[in-house]
Amino acid sequence: YDDAMVFVLLVDERPEEVTDMQRSIRGEVVSSTFDELPERHIKVAEMVLERTKRLVENNKDVVILLDSITRLSRAYNLTIPPTGRTLSGGLDPGALYSPKRFFGAARNIEDGGSLTVIATALVETGSRMDDVIFEEFKGTGNMEIHLDRKLSEKRIFPAVDIQKSGTRREELLLSKKELEVIWAIRRAMSNMGTAEVTEMIINKLMQTRTNKDFINNINVSFMDK
């Protein structure tokens, strides 16, 4: 989708990461680094959201890459007036309204443009607040990609836990044959370890040039497991 406009929104990020993104991403990078105030994080995020909405209204296809929804929620938690209630980890329920509005802004407009929001969420940080934020957003997206720290420590990239990752309504995106192969792969993976599964899939993908080739070259014995 060469005509899609890409915005990379970095919230509470290290300056080095911002520079690296600016040099490697084909798109517009908008950032608020960790040395900025929470109010600045929120202002930048809302500015990007409103700008992309106007572009969608003008029949543009826009993608926002947000890193991360967790840090954005933290910023709102520090700035909103207290509601008098507190969730586990010290999170005010009112702090989640605006991040949910941001994430929920993604949509496809009939006879118009579209807005896709791809956001990262932090897990296993040792913070109960981060866990609560993750649980609040879990299951709200149309796609979930779970990264595995153990895979990255083994230098297996991309470090994707394929068993936990997936797409909603995949039957609308795949042909009947593709769907059967995907389901066969998932059944076979259920008795395998995460690292073994990921390495095997990566190797098979490296041997083919397209998704169609990958589907056609799946070993029949593997599908029968």
Describe this structure in a few short sentences.
This protein is of the alpha/beta class and 225 residues long. It has 10 helices and 7 strands. It has 2 domains: 140 residues, P-loop containing nucleotide triphosphate hydrolases (Rossmann fold); 84 residues, no CATH class.
Q: What does this molecule look like?
A:
The protein is of the alpha/beta class. The relative contact order is 0.09. 44% of the residues lie in helices and 15% in strands. A 5-stranded mixed sheet has the order 2-1-3-5-4, sandwiched between helices. The chain has a two-stranded antiparallel ribbon with strand order 6-7. It is built from 10 helices and 7 strands. The chain has 2 domains: 1-140, P-loop containing nucleotide triphosphate hydrolases (Rossmann fold), CATH 3.40.50.300; 142-225, no CATH class.
List keywords for this structure.
225 residues, alpha/beta, Rossmann fold, 2 domains, 5-stranded mixed beta sheet, two-stranded antiparallel sheet, 10 helices, 44% helix, 15% strand
